[in-house]
Write a structure and sequence with these properties.
Layout lengths: L12 H5 L15 E4 L9 H12 L2 E2 H8 L3 H13 L3 E4 L10 H9 L1 H16 L1
Antiparallel strand pairs: 1-2, 1-3
Helix pairs in contact: 3-4, 5-6
Length: 129
């Protein structure tokens, strides 16, 4: 007779896909555009491959990728950070937000008037969807 595993013993799919990482090494703005740089997908996880495929024909905003994958924005930024480190995707930061190099820089940006304006624009766009 087959025994059903205890849900507490089964690792969360997101945890496995992120390889235990909980934060991004790159501060990615939700409106930053992502474009595939390398198409080789050998050894990549399903989420990595899907992002590379989505961004191969046209640049997509980080928030669009999250919506298309139906995954949380934080999840997508961690996966994108890994792909950036592997030089598989290129990120073009929007003019409204200068590229941030660290998580601390991102926190400073989103606490600034420019960051608040950007978040309000993103929220407005999401409401229109």
């Amino acid at each position: 007779m087959s025994q059903v595993p205890d849900p507490r013993d089964v690792p969360d799919r997101s945890f496995v896909a992120l390889r235990g990482r909980i934060s991004s090494d790159h501060a990615l703005d939700p409106s930053s555009l992502v474009l595939t740089q390398r198409m080789d997908v050998a050894g990549l996880q399903m989420e990595d491959i899907r992002i590379i495929e989505l961004c191969s024909d046209r640049a997509l905003a980080v928030v669009e990728i999250a919506a298309l994958l139906r995954r949380p924005l934080g999840f997508v930024t961690v996966v994108l950070s890994r792909l950036i480190d592997q030089h598989r995707v290129f990120v073009h930061h929007s003019p409204a937000s200068p590229p941030a190099q660290s998580r601390a820089d991102a926190d400073d940006f989103f606490g600034s008037p420019q960051g608040r304006e950007l978040l309000e624009r993103v929220l407005g766009g999401l409401r229109r969807i």
